[in-house]
Amino acid sequence: LQANNLSCVREDRTLFEHLSFAVSAGDLVQIEGPNGVGKTSLLRLLTGLSQPFAGEICWNGEDIRRCRDEYHANLLYLGHQPGVKATLTPLENLGFYQKLHGTGTSEVDLWRVLAQVGLAGFEDYPAGQLSAGQQRRVALARLWLSDRPALWILDEPFTAIDKQGVKVLERLFLAHADRGGMVILTTHQDLTLMEGRLKTLSLTPLLQDAV
Q1: Given pLDDT bands bounded at 50, 70 and 90, which one contains residue 207?
Q2: Burial classification of residue 88, based on how many CB atoms lie within 10 Å of its CB (0-12 exposed, 13-18 middle, 19 or more buried)
Q3: 22 — phi, psi (to 5°)?
Q4: Does the predicted TM-score (pTM) go above 0.85?
C-alpha cells in the first residue's frame, strides 16, 4: 500500500497535506496524533470511503479507484461503528461474516472465536441487546475468521477492551504480520507486546490550528 502526496480537507479546514508513506507485507503501523488532527479521516481515505483533496493511494502500484474490487477483496476495515446486525445473535453475525470472507473459513470454530473476545455465554443473545462494548467485540471477532484480507485497517480497535483482551488482540496482529499481512491502526493504548515491531506515523496539527 502506498500513499502519495495526500492532502485532506474537511469543511474548508486542511487536516494534513503532502503526506506520503508506504506499508509493506509484515508491517504494523500505528497512526498517532492529537484529537482532531485527521487520524480517522486518513483511515477513511485509505479504505476508499473518502477521496483525498489531492494525491493518490495505490495498491500494488495501481490507484485504488481503478482496482477497487481487487483492493477491497484484500481489505478488512473496522471503524468506530461496530457494523453488526442488531437482530442477529453474535453467532449468526459471525456466520454471516464467515460466508462473506469466502474460502478457508468453514473450519473456524465460531464458539471458540467468541470465547476469545470474551463473549462466551452471549452467543445466542440478539446483538442489539448487548452493550456497546460487547457489540464491538462481535466486530473484532471477524479478525479470527480469515487471513485472506491482507490489509487490516482498524480505528481504535481496543475501545472497551480490558487489558487481557488487548494482549489477545496484539498477539493476533503479530501473527497476521508474521504471515505477511499488514495492520494499520489508531489507538490510545500502550501496546507492550508489539513494541519493537510497531511503526508509527505521526500526524501533527498544521499551523492554522496551532495559533
Answers
A1: low
A2: middle
A3: -135, 145
A4: yes
**Hunting for cell 452493550 — which residue is that?**
131
- For residue 178 the three cell numbers come to 508474521
Q: Which three cell numbers stand for residue 118?
A: 470474551
User: pLDDT-based confidence at 147, cuts 50/70/90?
Assistant: low
Q: In the chain, what is the greatest distance between 2 CA atoms, to the nearest angstrom? A: 56
3-state SS string for the chain = CEEEEEEEEECCEEEEEEEEEECCCCCEEEEECCCCCCHHHHHHHHHCCCCCCEEEEEECCEECCCCHHHHHHCEEEECCCCCCCCCCCHHHHHHHHHHHHCCCCCCCCHHHHHHHCCCCCCCCCCHHHCCHHHHHHHHHHHHHCCCCCCEEEEECCCCCCCHHHHHHHHHHHHHHHHCCCEEEEECCCCCCCCCCCEEEEECCCCHHHHC
103's CB contacts (< 8 A; 6+ apart) are 148
Average per-residue pLDDT for the chain:
90
Residue 158 and residue 80 in contact, taking contact as beta carbons nearer than 8 Å: no
**Nearest alpha-carbon partner for 185 in 200, 165, 174:** 200
